[in-house]
Design brief:
Helices cover 37% and strands 24% of the residues. By secondary structure, it is an alpha/beta fold. Helix 6 packs parallel to helix 9 and helix 8 packs antiparallel against helix 9. The structure holds nicotinamide-adenine-dinucleotide.
């Protein structure tokens, strides 16, 4: 397999380590990175390019985006148009309805598909499968320690360091959540895209001094099954905002394309 990866941050570095530790390093890896990161990225042993066109010209079988909103615009859309399957990790970027449309159209025109991994959560397979049975409600709660909300609008709503009890500071739909809290948008967007869409998916955000991990809870009611998930995400050592589970979820996408059995 020739794997293309966009970005050389926390997820990419950990992804390459997980693939290596599982004996699943692809035969060829090409990384698309910002010029300032090219030298560090070369030390990984992968081929390194700094332009979207160069990544596409290298002819990867699969591209994994682990970078951010701009990478979806600059690289994923043209890669899909040229027929390369792409895994998008920055799913929150798809809360932008125009970008969502551009990505979908590019995949259609390119005769390929864009894959949205489960990322920090699980149970997305069940939610997406239940869709034809009629989904009645999806309610997601993001519960984090108060200081994990630093640098977000929650800072202006609450005295985060002084909290002694859980405080719900946001209640709204997934579109509002993703636009107001873009750094925390990925899970809300994933649930919205798998289930009821951005307008009907309910989101709550809680600053909770009694927790030390990033907790994702959601409840689904539907025609075929009702279920609830509770995930206590352990933070990545290099970027506490990213749950470690995300790295493993992306590794699974790559390994499922290399192995005889996909699960
Ligand atoms: N789906 C999920 O559940 C989930 C969970 C966690 C993180 N994420 C998303 O995954 C992405 C990566 O997370 P991370 O922890 O590795 O972040 P990070 O900041 O550690 O690394 C991202 C890297 O990508 C680079 N980059 C940004 N735009 C680029 C571009 N257009 N071309 C090339 N490189 C570019 C940055 O310079 C940075 O080095 C983020 O968008 C994050 O929101 C998704």
């Amino acid at each position: 397999m020739h794997l293309g990866v966009i970005g050389y941050g926390n997820i990419t570095r950990a992804l390459l380590d997980v693939l290596a530790s599982e004996g699943q390093t692809p035969e060829r890896v090409t990384l698309l990175v910002r010029p300032a990161q090219a030298e560090a990225a070369r030390a990984s042993g992968a081929e390194v390019v700094t332009e979207a066109a160069a990544l596409i010209a290298a002819g990867p079988d699969l591209i994994v985006e682990c970078a951010g909103h701009s990478a979806v615009v600059e690289t994923v859309v043209p890669a899909l148009l040229s027929g390369v399957e792409c895994v998008v990790v920055s799913i929150g970027a798809l809360a932008d309805a125009n970008l969502h449309h551009a990505v979908t159209e590019a995949a259609r025109k390119g005769g390929t598909r864009v894959v949205l991994p489960a990322g920090a959560i699980g149970g997305v397979d069940l939610l997406a499968a239940l869709k034809p049975s009629g989904i009645d409600s999806v309610v997601y709660t993001s519960r984090k320690p108060p200081l994990a909300w630093k640098g977000t609008p929650a800072e202006g709503l609450l005295d985060l360091p002084a909290l002694t009890e859980p405080a719900t500071f946001f209640t709204g739909n997934a579109r509002e959540a993703a636009l107001a809290y873009p750094k925390n948008a990925n899970v809300a967007a994933t649930l919205a895209l798998a289930g009821l869409g951005f307008e009907a998916t309910r989101v709550e955000m809680v600053a909770d001094p009694s927790v030390s991990q990033n907790i994702h809870e959601y409840r689904v009611t539907s025609g075929a099954a009702d279920y609830a998930m509770h995930i206590e995400g352990k933070p990545s050592p290099d970027n506490p905002k990213t749950s470690l589970a995300t790295v493993y979820s992306v590794a699974r996408e790559v390994m499922n394309r290399r192995n005889e059995v996909a699960i």
